[in-house]
Amino acid sequence: MAKNRQPVLRRCKTLGLSPAVLGYSKETNRKPKQTRRKQSEYGMQLAEKQKLKFIYGVLEKQFHGYFVRAERKSGNTGEVLLQELERRLDNVVFRMGYANTRREARQLVNHGHFTVNGRRVNIPSFQVRPGDEVAVCEKSRSSEKFKTLIEQNGKNPTPKWIEKAADAFEGKIVAMPAREDIDYDVAEHLIVELYNK
Question: Is 76 left (phi over 0), alpha (psi -120 to 50) or beta?
Fold first, then answer.
């Protein structure tokens, strides 16, 4: 399986992202280089696509598949694309506070620490739907790792489309994610324009 092994802070700086979006508390001390070259329209579109791919940890082939699926559905293609990415199980685990970063959430899902509707799921790209219940497996609840994660992130607010008690090991998807729930700056219409060329 292909993995993105780029340094996170350097990539954040290149894409103009805050590391906090990815769950990292570190900030870079390096000053950005002053460039006078104006970015082309294609450059802006490509940067937005790379930003979204980097945030969710998705490679090109899988990202293109999400775009094709979003295009087939009714509604604004850009917003549907964001919904598809937000509904990934690894992202839901991160949003619920069971992991500090999306990369860590992906690893925990791969190791089989989570169930969806009582069934163990170890596929990070699994799409959750409204009504699904995501929970930490019974065996994993007693581990020190999850106890500390619940203590650290238990008080953090979850998005409106996820219902979860403060110190609970389970939560419920109550609605589809809305555009307002996206807490980072992305121009999804540029991605749609890029793919429609």
Answer: beta
